[in-house]
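User: Reviewer 2 asked us to show a designed sequence for the structure in our supplementary figure. I'm pasting the structure tokens here. Could you produce the per-position amino acids so we can include them in the response letter?
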């Protein structure tokens, strides 16, 4: 069977996993089908759930939901940007305050240690590295 026949069969069957998003190409195909149905004179389905008015209402509800999603995503993106800026403002303020504590009390003070930093005197002193023994000459 060709891919086109397989795709038609997939499109005609009801979805099993209705929690995953539908591909934009399928949505566009559905929009095209709605436009074609609107152009069919005398379209009167046996099942009232599929009248032109109900199909148009479902399409309008989808458009509204997608617009709402887009707006809320923009709001979430904006809120994330605001939170990121606030985090950096706070972080930079704390870094500046640490510099002020160091300048006022010194890097070897209890105040410096109270900030969760290590006193200068508590760092290990560098030791001289032993020189490697010269290799015996042959």
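Assistant: Here is a per-position design you can include in the supplement:
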């Amino acid at each position: 069977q060709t891919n086109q026949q397989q795709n038609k069969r997939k499109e005609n069957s009801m979805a099993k996993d209705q929690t995953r998003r539908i591909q934009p190409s399928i949505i566009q195909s559905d929009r095209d089908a709605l436009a074609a149905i609107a152009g069919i004179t005398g379209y009167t389905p046996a099942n009232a759930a599929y009248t032109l008015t109900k199909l148009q209402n479902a399409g309008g509800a989808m458009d509204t939901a997608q617009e709402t999603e887009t707006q809320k995503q923009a709001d979430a993106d904006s809120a994330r940007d605001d939170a990121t800026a606030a985090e950096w403002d706070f972080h930079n303020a704390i870094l500046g305050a640490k510099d002020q504590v160091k300048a006022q009390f010194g890097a070897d003070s209890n105040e410096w240690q109270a900030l969760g930093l290590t006193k200068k005197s508590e760092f290990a002193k560098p030791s001289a590295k032993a020189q490697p023994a010269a290799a015996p000459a042959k």
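For the response letter, you might also mention the following. The two ends are 82 Å apart (CA to CA). Residues 52-105 form the longest helix (54 residues).
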